[in-house]
Amino acid sequence: MIHLFINALPASAGGGLTYIRNVVPQLAARDDVRATVLVGDALRNEISESDRITVVKENFHGRAGRRFWREQSLLPDMVRQSGADVLLCPGNFALFRSPIPQILLSRNALYTSADFLRDLRERGDSRLWIDTKIKGALAHSSVLRAERTVAPSEAFAEELRRWTGRDVQCIHHGFDSESFFREPAPLPQNMRDQLASAAGAVKILFVSHYNYYRNFETLIRAVAIIKRKLYPRGARLILTCRLVSQDNPGRYKAETAAELVHSCKLEEDIIQLGAVPYASLHHLYRNCDFYATPAYAETFAHPLVEAMASGLPVIASDLPVHREICGEAAVYFPRFSPEALAERIIQLSGCEANEPETKRAQMRELGLRRSRYFRWNAHVDALLKLARHLANEVA
User: Fold this and answer.
1) Residues 226 and 321 in one domain
2) How confident is the model over 177-214, as pLDDT tens digits?
3) I need a surface site. Which of 112, 127, 300, 356 has the fewest CB within 10 A?
């Protein structure tokens, strides 16, 4: 039996939480593995102990730099005392003095994204630019220090290979369709009321908290075009966030996007739901017509798989990772072109295509089929195979 120590402290939002929420139950269901999971506030009440899962709860508060160095100082002893065989670091940064072999899961494309750094310069956000450069240097060093580095897509694995000169393995993240659709929890009533107000309009969904690299501004401008061209039917953009800085994780300033909504007179056309409970999220997908993502940096994008599994046609920015995940189940557009994004949605909505319903039906079928390729049990199988290999190397 192999014993993993999982440092889940960095999992505080988005894909990090999704990863831990899905991987730990997979490990708990297996007879050949034990896991010690170190969690912070975000997962404190979600990860349960069992015969094979030990949960360690810690609070490493303070600024990012202080938290990082505290982790580096305290984790080696915690790992050693756990008796684990292999350390799993799913938060982009390795433990620099690990007493056991470690697997680094690198899944942040911002440290290698020229578009993100350019975006920060254009926004005049020098503080976040410096922060990204410093974290990028630590992420680069982490790849060099870890015994193995794993990326969630081949596209990002290749990017990391070019960046570091090290071998990086691709192990796709997964999706548990049965678990995702099993939860009966309905959407909160206020969210159902907001969605009801969009009846008759083309409903376009985007699942993300606000940040720069998901490129909200291109999507907002596209909605203005769609609204004009689909008049009087109109369109509604459904967001799982609010365009208010303090309502979103990180240091991203949402006011520019909020001002764009106002200047485009889209206050009634963009529904800002705020954070949607994960157990209710499948109801939201099934209440919409299309899923659109204009992101200019990405490593996997779980919402794409969720959307395909929900039968939603996907319109995605033309990134290698999006093509890898969706294949022919999506249509693509240049990532900074609101005109092209609007054109794709208008064509699929039926106004400028001869057989839009046939195309949407084909996309739904291809998406459902494609979503079945990504399985958390397959991800954990590959991860454990790698962990056993590392453990055997030092045995």
Assistant:
1) yes
2) 988 998 888 999 999 999 999 999 999 999 999 999 99
3) 127
Of residues 357, 207, 173, the one with CA closest to residue 292 = 207
Report which residue type is found at 135.
K
- In this prediction, residue 12 has a pLDDT band, given cuts at 50, 70 and 90, of low
> What CATH number is attached to the domain comprising 363?
3.40.50.2000
Contact assessment for residue 168 and residue 148, using Cβ atoms and an 8 Å cutoff: no
Q: How far is CA 202 from CA 4, 242, 345, in A?
A: 47, 20, 9
**Are residues 347 and 380 located together in one domain of the fold?**
no
Q: CA 86, CA 94: separation in Å to the nearest integer?
A: 12
Q: How sure is the predictor about 65, in pLDDT bands with cuts at 50, 70 and 90?
A: low
How many domains does the chain fold into? Answer: 2
Torsion angle defined by CA atoms of residues 154, 156, 162 and 165, in that order, rounded to the nearest 10 degrees: -80
Does a cis peptide bond (omega within 30 degrees of 0) precede residue 99? Answer: no
Burial of 265 (0-12, 13-18, 19+ CB in 10 A): exposed
Do 154 and 54 lie in one domain? The reply is yes
Identify whether residues 215 and 299 lie together within a single domain: yes
Say whether 244 sits in a helix, a strand or coil: coil
Residue type (1 letter), 279? A
Local structure of 162: helix, strand or coil: helix
Cβ pair 105, 25 in contact under 8 A:
no
Angle 156-159-163 from CA coordinates, rounded to 5° = 140
Q: pLDDT for 353-394, tens place per residue?
A: 456 678 899 999 999 999 999 999 999 999 999 999 999 887
Residues 192 and 115 occupy one common structural domain: no
Residues contacting residue 192 through CB under 8 Å, at least 6 positions apart? 186
Q: pTM for this structure?
A: 0.92
Rg of the chain, C-alpha, whole Å? 21
For β-strands 86-89 and 314-317, DSSP reports them as unpaired
7, 89 contact by CB (below 8 A)? yes
The span from the CA of 209 to the CA of 204, in Å, is 16
Domain check: are 211 and 355 in the same one?
Answer: yes
Q: Mark whether 134 and 232 lie in a shared domain.
A: no
Q: Tell me the C-alpha distance between 202 and 274, whole Å.
A: 20
Residue 98's domain spans which residues?
2-174+375-394
